[in-house]
Amino acid sequence: MSLRTSARNAGAKFPLLRKAVPVFAALGDETRLRLIALLCTGSALSIAQLTAGTDITRQAVTKHLQVLADAGLVRDLRQGRERLWELQASRLDEARRSLDVITAQWDQALLRLKATLEP
Fold first, then answer.
1. What does the alpha-carbon distance between residue 54 and residue 31 come to, in Å, rounded to a whole number?
2. pTM of the entire structure?
3. 46 Cβ contact list (under 8 Å, min separation 6)
4. pLDDT (tens digit, 0 to 9) for every residue of the chain, 119 residues total?
5. Backbone angles phi, psi at 74, to 5 degrees
């Protein structure tokens, strides 16, 4: 079985893993990880607050936030003329659960290997 076939079967077998793919893809960028860390404080933040103390442009942060929003990790709120961004922690929880599935698979594989190798 090829790696590609195996990956396709895993996606069909574990829909939670397939659903987490956009989250992991969005988190695969250092700037987006930093934005998530800033938003983990719990309060909604503006673009100005998210760019304060950095050399990243507002336009670049807006593009990164859109990627995070497309993955369901953040959402924007309108407050008057200001646009605030907040974390959608439930999507991070879903990603964590998918990592738990992978961890359990590895644990089972290691136990099978140990049983095979030990007398």
1. 11
2. 0.74
3. 82, 83, 84, 85
4. 454 555 555 555 567 678 888 898 999 999 999 999 999 988 899 999 999 988 999 999 999 999 999 999 999 999 999 999 999 998 888 888 888 888 888 889 999 998 888 87
5. -135, 165
Helices (H), 30-88: 30-39, 47-51, 58-70
Which residues does 19 contact at the CB level (< 8 Å), separation at least 6? 94, 98
* Strand arrangement, sheet containing 74-79: 45-46, 82-87, 74-79
The rounded distance, in Å, linking the Cα atoms of 86 and 76 is 6
DSSP letter, residue 45: E
